[in-house]
Amino acid sequence: MNHDTYSDDYIRSILNSVKTIAMVGASPIDVRPSYFAFKYLVQRGYDMIPINPGHVGKSLLGRPFVASLSAIGRPIDMIDIFRSSKHIMPVVDEALKLDPLPKVIWMQLGARDDEAAAKAEAAGLKVVMNRCPKIEYGRLSSEISWMGVNSRTISAKRAPVPTQGMRLSLNRMSVGGGATAASDRAAKNRDEQS
Amino acid sequence: MTDRIPGFSTLAVHAGAQPDPTTGARATPIYQTTSFVFNDADHAASLFGLQAFGNIYTRIGNPTNAVLEERVAALEGGTAALAVASGHAAQVIVLQQLLTPGDEFIAARKLYGGSINQFTHAFKSFGWNVVWADPDDITTFERAVSPRTKAIFIESIANPGGSITDIEAIAAIARSAGVPLIVDNTLASPYLIRPIDHGADIVVHSLTKFLGGHGNSLGGIIVDAGTFDWSKDNKYPMLSEPRPEYHGIRIQETFGNFAFAIACRVLGLRDLGPALSPFNAFLILTGIETLPLRMQKHCDNAKAVAEFLAGHPAVASVSYAGLPGDKYNNLARKYAPKGAGAVFTFNLKGGYEAGVSLVSNLQLFSHLANVGDTRSLVIHPASTTHSQLDDAAKIKAGAGPDVVRLSIGIEDKEDLIADLDQALKA
């Protein structure tokens, strides 16, 4: 599939269906992007598992660090990879040996490996690259609008009052990728040059 | 649910706004409050550490202002926006993220007189050096690029002459120089021109003009196109380096394609302070809902008035890009096919004296220093907005002594033409 842009429906269907997420490269340092995303996804009700061999024996927001995907020992729905592009393939290879297979491979902002994506898709997994699940969740729920970000969603419906630790509705009308097409084009040009 | 891209008018009414979850209020409430209660200590820490989405203090963000920000970002096709107290404040904050003392930025010589003053004098004391280039000769931008260049700044439709800038040609120069292109889109509004579609990386506005549209509220906004790679070559440390203000967060790495808007908010607005009043944000939002209707009427009226003036015996020439044969007509057809804006100048055969006489005899046009009001406005730039420039600079900026500037409102065009006709005869 085309990984330059994603339809809101595609992202929404992933965030609405997965429950257990293993985050590869989760950091205990509270200014790292992985920490931000981990904490947010915990607050939104996802069952989060931090994967980082350097921190086994410690825990992240009460969840024990696990050394590797194969050491988790229970089924997971999604793997969120906080590693640079050149370190993606070994993680995907390890993911494809899990039984049962995870449903989604998600690569963070700035990470893209088309070969690894094709391999995962051939095994029936969904793939998202160069996106952040925290940003996408915030965008589709419009929570990110507090920061002046273009959520590309509109709605005339009254939403429930948001409280901490609550799943938010992601099912707002999407105003579509065209609204930030320039940003997607620029990202694609950078990928092609690198 | 399928993705569907709504049209411009739908976005002008809906983008960013939703019924208030607590009360069900349909119009955007005015959150006239300085500060916001935290859920608990961890929530407070998360907000201060930029880990959570939410409100702290109105100098950093406000829910009414956030609706305005998202709406303008959507209309411009950007990833995010930051609303501030004025267009001038927007320019200071944008350049503060990009320049350090001793750096340069290239600016088009044809600009709003207030911007020329700000760039020439106020920014000099920050060590930000402006290098002027001529939008009518694109090669002057190429020649102005140096290793210290950090940005290029242009207006889409230039004040006061209403000339149209070749955004794509200058965007190409910015790209090859590896610097962002900043476009002031105030006189066009996104209804006429969306600079991001033509290669702009950052768009700024004085919301005071056509976006607010009613001459009642000052405001400015910065729109992030999400197109520029700030991490390259360590040229923009505010975005690429660990920020001591936030315990070492790297803004681009953390916020991706809306990093510039976040930097403007958490490093610029937070520390420099020109916050927009939520009440102004509400008035401007209300104005934006009718932007497509107003802007078309402004343009249609402007064209009719320009045609009338072009045929008037007291008028030496009319500079309106919407007129066939105008120097900028081809650029207007390319960049602003719905209309060439509503601010333009004309030259009187009678020179300075005729200008003064015209302004004093007009009954319906208001003599004041603003543009983009529902009301038609007139000014003599040489003695007002551009008065601090010397004569040569006035002429270069399109504000010579015989020049009168009009900002055409949304009244009936027949009444505007009749008023000009009687004042020119008087």
Judged by helices, strands and strand pairing, the structural class of chain A is alpha/beta
What are the low-pLDDT stretches of chain A, counting only 5+ consecutive residues below 50?
Answer: none
Q: Gap between N and C termini of chain A, in Å?
A: 21 Å
* Largest β-sheet summary of chain B: 7 strands, mixed
What is the mean pLDDT of chain A?
Answer: 90
Tally of helical runs of chain A: 6
Q: With helices defined by DSSP (H or I, 4 residues minimum), what is the helix count of chain B?
A: 17
Molecular shape of chain A: globular
Report the portion of residues of chain A in β strands.
Answer: 5-15%
Low-confidence stretches of chain B: none
How is this structure best described in words?
The complex is a heterodimer of chains A (194) and B (426). Chain A has 194 residues and is of the alpha/beta class. Chain A is built from 6 helices and 9 strands. Chain A has helices at 8-17, 33-43, 88-95, 114-122, 133-140, 181-193, and strands at residues 20-24, 47-51, 59-60, 63-64, 78-81, 104-107, 126-128, 153-154, 173-174. In chain A, helix 3 packs parallel to helix 4 (114-122). Chain A is globular. Chain B has 426 residues and is of the alpha/beta class. Chain B contains 17 helices and 16 strands. Chain B has helices spanning 8-14, 41-48, 63-76, 87-98, 113-122, 139-144, 167-177, 189-192, 237-240, 251-255, 259-272, 278-288, 291-310, 329-335, 351-361, 391-396, 413-425; strands at residues 80-84, 104-108, 129-133, 149-155, 157-158, 163-164, 181-184, 202-206, 220-224, 242-243, 249-250, 315-319, 343-348, 366-367, 377-379, 403-407. Chain B is globular. At the A-B interface, helix 1, helix 2, strand 9 and helix 6 of A face helix 1, helix 3, strand 1 and helix 11 of B.
